[in-house]
Design a protein that fits this description.
By secondary structure, the chain is mostly helical. It is built from seven helices and no strands. Helix 2 crosses helix 4 and helix 5 runs antiparallel to helix 6. It is flat and about 55 Å long. The termini are far apart.
């Protein structure tokens, strides 16, 4: 797990709060946290839990995963995977069985690509196509 980067998180939260045209007090009330606690998070003095970040994200109507990445709880690759899964699961035009099959296919492609990348890394760089084979 990465270390928390609360300064970056606080600046980002402040920016999102201002974009939403919410006062610190309004956001604190909507998120169910105290005004002083939210102020300390914004100033980079406190390390919020994932639960608090989720409450704040919901109040700001932004992705909790984005806040997790900003806080160093989740890395970017994990966030992308979670968001992909969330989009599939939220799609009302496909049924539950189709969603599960689609996620299984997605997982198999990810595993296949990871295995190929691992094999390529283990074998070293590929020879340049313009170079004649060495004898």
């Amino acid at each position: 797990m990465a270390s928390l980067n609360v300064g970056n998180l606080g600046d980002y939260l402040r920016e999102q709060r201002r974009s939403a045209q919410l006062s610190l007090r309004q956001l604190a009330e909507a998120a169910g946290v105290s005004n002083p606690y939210l102020s300390q998070i914004e100033r980079g003095l406190r390390k919020p839990s994932a639960e608090v970040l989720q409450q704040v994200a919901k109040a700001l109507r932004i992705s909790a995963e984005t806040l997790y990445v900003r806080a160093g709880i989740l890395d970017e690759k994990e966030r992308e995977e979670l968001e992909t899964r969330a989009v599939v699961l939220a799609d009302p035009s496909i049924n539950e069985r189709q969603k599960q099959v689609l996620l299984q296919i997605y997982d198999s492609f990810r595993k296949e690509n990871a295995a190929e990348a691992e094999a390529a890394a283990a074998s070293g760089p590929a020879p340049d196509a313009d170079e004649p084979p060495s004898s």
